Prior knowledge:
Six copies of one chain form a homohexamer. Chain A has 291 residues and is an alpha/beta fold. Helices cover 42% and strands 21% of the residues of chain A. Chain A has helices at residues 8-25, 36-39, 44-60, 72-81, 97-120, 158-165, 188-198, 229-237, 245-257, 273-279; strands spanning 29-34, 64-69, 88-89, 92-93, 126-130, 137-141, 150-155, 169-173, 175-177, 183-185, 203-208, 226-228, 262-267, 286-289. Chains in contact: A-B, A-F, B-C, C-D, D-E, E-F.
Amino acid sequence: MSTAREHPDQTAQLLIEALPYIRQFADSVVVVKYGGNALAGGDEASALASFAQDIVLLQAVGIKPVVVHGGGPQIAEMLKKIGKTSEFHDGLRITDAETLEMAQMVLVGKVNSGIVAALNVHGPIAVGLSGVDANLITAAFRDEKLGFVGDVTNVDPTIVNRLVAQGIVPVIATIGSDIAGQTLNINADTVAGEIAAAVHAEKLVFLTDVPGIRRVADDPSTVMAQATVEELEALVSSGAANGGMVPKVEACCTAVRGGVRRAHILDGTTPHALLVELFTDSGVGTMVVPS
Amino acid sequence: MSTAREHPDQTAQLLIEALPYIRQFADSVVVVKYGGNALAGGDEASALASFAQDIVLLQAVGIKPVVVHGGGPQIAEMLKKIGKTSEFHDGLRITDAETLEMAQMVLVGKVNSGIVAALNVHGPIAVGLSGVDANLITAAFRDEKLGFVGDVTNVDPTIVNRLVAQGIVPVIATIGSDIAGQTLNINADTVAGEIAAAVHAEKLVFLTDVPGIRRVADDPSTVMAQATVEELEALVSSGAANGGMVPKVEACCTAVRGGVRRAHILDGTTPHALLVELFTDSGVGTMVVPS
Amino acid sequence: MSTAREHPDQTAQLLIEALPYIRQFADSVVVVKYGGNALAGGDEASALASFAQDIVLLQAVGIKPVVVHGGGPQIAEMLKKIGKTSEFHDGLRITDAETLEMAQMVLVGKVNSGIVAALNVHGPIAVGLSGVDANLITAAFRDEKLGFVGDVTNVDPTIVNRLVAQGIVPVIATIGSDIAGQTLNINADTVAGEIAAAVHAEKLVFLTDVPGIRRVADDPSTVMAQATVEELEALVSSGAANGGMVPKVEACCTAVRGGVRRAHILDGTTPHALLVELFTDSGVGTMVVPS
Amino acid sequence: MSTAREHPDQTAQLLIEALPYIRQFADSVVVVKYGGNALAGGDEASALASFAQDIVLLQAVGIKPVVVHGGGPQIAEMLKKIGKTSEFHDGLRITDAETLEMAQMVLVGKVNSGIVAALNVHGPIAVGLSGVDANLITAAFRDEKLGFVGDVTNVDPTIVNRLVAQGIVPVIATIGSDIAGQTLNINADTVAGEIAAAVHAEKLVFLTDVPGIRRVADDPSTVMAQATVEELEALVSSGAANGGMVPKVEACCTAVRGGVRRAHILDGTTPHALLVELFTDSGVGTMVVPS
Amino acid sequence: MSTAREHPDQTAQLLIEALPYIRQFADSVVVVKYGGNALAGGDEASALASFAQDIVLLQAVGIKPVVVHGGGPQIAEMLKKIGKTSEFHDGLRITDAETLEMAQMVLVGKVNSGIVAALNVHGPIAVGLSGVDANLITAAFRDEKLGFVGDVTNVDPTIVNRLVAQGIVPVIATIGSDIAGQTLNINADTVAGEIAAAVHAEKLVFLTDVPGIRRVADDPSTVMAQATVEELEALVSSGAANGGMVPKVEACCTAVRGGVRRAHILDGTTPHALLVELFTDSGVGTMVVPS
Amino acid sequence: MSTAREHPDQTAQLLIEALPYIRQFADSVVVVKYGGNALAGGDEASALASFAQDIVLLQAVGIKPVVVHGGGPQIAEMLKKIGKTSEFHDGLRITDAETLEMAQMVLVGKVNSGIVAALNVHGPIAVGLSGVDANLITAAFRDEKLGFVGDVTNVDPTIVNRLVAQGIVPVIATIGSDIAGQTLNINADTVAGEIAAAVHAEKLVFLTDVPGIRRVADDPSTVMAQATVEELEALVSSGAANGGMVPKVEACCTAVRGGVRRAHILDGTTPHALLVELFTDSGVGTMVVPS
């Protein structure tokens, strides 16, 4: 691939081709869900640095990014380190107090800090948040038998909006707390959808490790370029979507039904997939639109 | 002790007696260093809830509190849990990568979140920060042989000032990062002094587990009610102060030399010592003043 | 009674017990009607100083007080001094030009200035207003045979709102003027109710010399702790309320019907009754609520 | 004299001729001292209405007027009404408590309210202040033997500046208070000079009942069109100025030395003398300039 | 005619008579259409200077003027200079590319600059705009056979509102552009009406060379002092209005239907007709009112 | 050359490479002098559209561009069209009244409007100004024998700063006016330098038709990549620079001495030279730096 150093005129040309998109998304909020898997790959530091560049570029051209992240693989690794084995209730993993503590420490004290630090190499750009901060995410126990697992009952986006208004990129770890101050673990995809709706985002982008939503779960050739909320809801209720894709698909629907114009599920392992989606004609992954 | 419920007229009377102090400190920033020991006591949750009440009261009467915290005992407990033993260099403990990771997770993901959650039971009042957020604390390796231990090289108080201006209580975990984004462990007392100076605090208050600074380290009867910066600096250089008290004393001096009007070292295990110091005639602990 | 000086820990405890109330009323406007009788007692200066402390404390903890006052006893004293005797029309006292002039001078030039001066001993906190200022209260002649007595036709709260927004306590003398600039005497209780509604106050508090509203006018044992607007309106129309209590009761109803959440009639001769009502569980006097 | 109704083209022409002055004084603060004598004339109401028109016009064309007033004749009349006779100390009148009370009531409750009401016929334009409001004028006893007579020790113009910034005309009665809240009577001319300097006025205008400052006190033909601060100070120290003119002359000097560009002493009994001075080439009275 | 210099008291009197109008129109936007004919008279520079004085006076007394101008005679003169003769389509003049270029250069580069320069002799008051600036006027080809003649399709008053809010007088040349950036010539009267409606003007004033709208086109004695929108629309549809008066009448109707309170058609060749209309009881020309 | 459509990944890569420059120049003012020659080429519309894209891109990525333009070739063409021949004084061309009028019409009414229209195809981005607007450029006659030619005596950048602060691109035609409102023709390069200094620009960029400043005027191989102010001043005083390059070089020196960090002389006929200079490592043309 040629570089700017070799062909400065090409840089200029490509910037000009990106101009309509830059203008279109100026001042728009774009919520990016960055998966723990994206971080857990072979060259984690390099992937994170590349992701940070993308986010900083978005901000530099006037877009207002908000990052939401998970950290499943990192939590699993930590639990393994302390020799923790999970118990189950009706086949579902129970989040006991120690598991919650580990999850919270890994999400907030490791993954979140790591993303913030990678962004802030470029300047004082990012601030880490968890759902506990300024009561961003209030949650309630889903089922006491499952332990400290919560469902979102309220999103108060004030702190996110204020940081965004100051040119700061909020990076959000998906820990919530109930009204008594008890922290709870929550599904990160779900939170991303709720936050995108609450902050009136223009776009919600899931950076995953798959190329999009498949019409037939087992058939990689059935990735959809575009889907309506109705199509996706049918896909979920028919059972055609499965596994980890379900909360992502549901979150896209939550967001789009909540006023977000477009939701996207992209393969975040492709370098700069976020930029390609935003600044070129080449749609990648699946775009979710209102009906 | 009588209560407000029994003697409402007394509540009124005592409020009136607190009035001059409330007016004096209105709109002032007060940095409170909350020690990990204070949290690690027998009834940790209750102590934390009591501390949270004090901070919320400060904010309710127009003071602008900023909380800085450590977490030594909690880090030690975690290291023990994973069976980590420390190595030493010239008698000093080495913070290797795993130790740093644990320290960061405990400080940011456990202690910090815990304090924030305790405060936010009262409303969306607090936001947790670490030194990584918006490059609040830039640090540099102290000595590579000691591993990931840093000294503060710069404090950028912008994010703290903005949150304070919005009526938010920043709660700061004392992790910093160097300019390459590498996080480093830093002494929490030192950070408290630097931040107090950087935000032009009116007061810096250390909540410790001792009743103040002793003129003679081993003699509890020599606690000073008041001391000048010069007296304390002499105490440190003469070796009369020792152990964990040294960084606290030095931080008081840093803060007062940096423009903070008063620094205090109090026994935080006394209930509501912070309020007694601020709102009554009864000075408690040691007050550090400019010469 | 023990004092803060003796029991600083008690001060702290009582402050903590007041915290929920302080937080609840933060940024709320509380209109306080301060009666001329309260000022005319045996130790006028001391009562006024105590009242001033209460108002300054309210302001110090973030409440926005607005004071409305009368001055009946002081006007009577002045009229006596100049040997003025009143004429009557159908049994009602006639406010002739000289009486109006005396009333205005006493209310604006004596009582109002006295309250403002007592408050401003604590700092540049209060500004005196009469209804003439910035056309705060426009009135119309009630009945030309009664002379210069007016009924409120309009309240323009702009100047009150602006001063309140600047942290100033407006102290309002209840003189109004008609559209030709003719000043008129108006009932202070009525004005208090109208202003409380116009500034969207959270509370209206009447500091009187009785312990509350009686269900049976002559029976002190029938003071009501709480009453709805409907109950009070029935009380007035049945004639059960009488004398000076009627305009107070009507003003409470006006205010509550106009959106004020709670109106109170307290015995202002009890020290710090205002603080006891606001900051403790002990309701004193009668609280008026919507139906 | 022809009127606008008869010669509308002349109105237009004269407006055009006033244009340079209107532009020159736009956004400037002009302090106008309005004497009690001006109010005490044969047709008081008419004179006041005419004065009010002038002030409203100033405000309408973008000037920021501040009115300071006295009330000597009105106070004398009131004292007479209550049969008060003054005592003297070394030939100087003693202001005892009752005299102070009467002075305060007349100045604040009668003269001030009267001016404010006359202005507010034109809209919610004016707010009355005394020196007690927001601690505008702090004073100290001049000589306890003279009773409640004060000298200005501090002017805090914050409340005046705020009202002016909101398009309000402050009307100031010259009662001050000492730091204990004791009100004191102060010379109105002196206050006008101090306030003009404190608010950085462009002009200070005294509306008196004489045509200007005479070089020779007894010789009406020696009225000066212009005088420097030095000339006037020499006039006062030589004793050539006398009587009530001395505080006016001294106040002009205070103001001009304090940064006010021009001070004027005009005959306020000439209709619209203020407008003629401000908006035509015809200087009237004496203009005081820096040396 | 007497002047201010001769009769300063008269200036004052007339200013007082103008006061109610000055207050009434304070902060109101007044759109003034200044015709090219007004500029093309015998003493063009003098007429322009006089017009500039009027506009500056309006601004000085707090009115917010917006000037819209044409330039027909000046364009004709320029076309003559380059020897351009027009072609016609169905009897209508065709604006070919060269004619458009000349029109644009004369309107924007000569007439507009001339008005701006005349205003700015009084200070940095005016900024010239054409419809191209910040897309103030978007237009579309009326009929391609007529060449570069456009009809207004959109007015974006943002730039006008911003300049007005900053105390600047926008001076608008009536060139528009279509969405491809092609400039088009537009009728200036029409633009004036559209802009008056878009900026929510209080008044729209046409300065023409006739004394008003005639009920009978050929009969000068039938000039109407006042007319409703309905009356004027009937006049136009009946053909009773004709020639250059039609777009003016239609623009008045557009403006008044669009919320402008009053539209006026005056004889701008009378000196200061604008001031006479605004600041005296003497209505001149025809005033258009809603039905 | 490959395009974004073909190689979206390359677009992303090149955006990332431009990121440091985008961040570096964010919020900086960049003054771009756009020469008349650049407009007068073979494909004028296309060159202008390309220039407009560059400016819009600058603005889209957070830079604040200000455009200053000349129009020599276009003025010459217009003078030719009306058959105007110039007279001379001591060998210098005389700008008589008609020449000035044509210059003003062409610059303001044609070139300026053309640039504004080309920019505003992208949205309401640009507003045209001449030096007459809000007294941006005050000038004085250079030599009356040369006619209406002026030298800059004052730049009041207020209107430019305000538009820039609102996200508007000012496009400035270099006509000034003297204090009597007489317009004058001024050298556009000189104006560009003065304005760059007055608005505290980060950069001044001359888009010319040559590749930079030559050390030896006749030797194209001596183009300098970088030069200090001192080197250039020596070049001018030694006569080594000549012709139209002199005012450009002098303007660069004026700007840099006035605080502009970098001035550049580029070949504007190279497509997107502006973007290449700003967003790649490849410096083009000559960069002028402080000594």
